Amino acid sequence: MTAIEQPNSQNLHEAIFQKLRLLLVEGKIPPGSKLNERELAESLKVSRTPIREAIRRLAADGLVELIANRGAIALQLSVVDVINTFDVIADLEGFSGELAAKNISDAVLSELEALQYEMMASYARRDLSSYYKLNLHIHQLINQAANNPVLSKLFSQVNARIEALRFRSNQDGVKWEKAVEEHQEMLDALKARDSARMRKIMMQHVKNKRDVVVQLIKLEAGASQETAELGKA
In angstroms, rounded to a whole number, what is the distance separating the alpha carbons of residues 200 and 71? Predict the structure, then answer.
């Protein structure tokens, strides 16, 4: 784990929070594993105070669970949890896309086009980390363009639960290519100010993600069970 470059004290806590968040999203702290304050502090070469504060913020965002007698555990969702969460996100993103198509400014459209270009470059390099950051920024901009603060807050809260799963869902080449195509369709719908089409695209995009994630979880569960059975043999 890379140590944090020591910024001034005002920004240190934010840097630690963002670092731990990224480790969770990218699966470098796997779901169900414990966040050990001492080990994290040693590996990042900081005191335990900013680690502790970051963990509290991650728990508030829904990426970490604080469990009595166990401490902080990286969120691990069941298949039912995943389906329920993605279904809620589909409606939120669909509504967000519909409002964005009505309210988006030319300046934000230009910014989205630039981000789409960068994201395509990341896709061409198969740079999943860079791709995901740009992808998330695009979704956030669309959400902000809806111009509904309550919707934006709900989206951020619910999406935090499945960020790591959305990241991993792009590791399948064919599914990743499909997601890229859907992002271009979103941009086209926004340019056309077609709110009904934008809502449909956004909802289908999220539901496709849900199906990929559910399949991934089931495959991993099957592989784990097979490994356990082989270990008993």
Answer: 41
Counted residue by residue, the chain has a size of 233
Short-list 60, 79, 78, 77, CA closest to 21:
60
- The tens digit of pLDDT for each residue in 76-127 reads 888 999 999 999 999 999 999 999 999 999 999 999 999 999 999 999 999 9
- The CATH number of the domain holding residue 64 is 1.10.10.10
Residues 75/117, Cβ–Cβ less than 8 Å: no
The closest of 55, 85, 88, 84 to 72, measured between CA atoms, is: 55
pTM value? 0.77
C-beta atoms surrounding 161 within 10 Å:
20
Count of structural domains within the chain: 2
Task: With H, G, I as helix, E, B as strand and everything else as coil, classify residue 202.
Answer: helix
> Has residue 193 been placed in a domain?
yes
* Dihedral angle over CA of 57, 87, 177, 188, nearest 10: -100
Task: Give me the amino acid identity at 74.
Answer: A
Q: Can you tell me the distance from the alpha carbon of 183 to that of 187, in angstroms, rounded to the nearest whole number?
A: 6
Amino acid at 25: V
How many C-beta atoms lie closer than 10 Å to residue 34's C-beta? 14
Do both 167 and 66 map to the same domain?
A: no
Closest CA to 167 of 129, 211, 203: 129
pLDDT at 171: 63
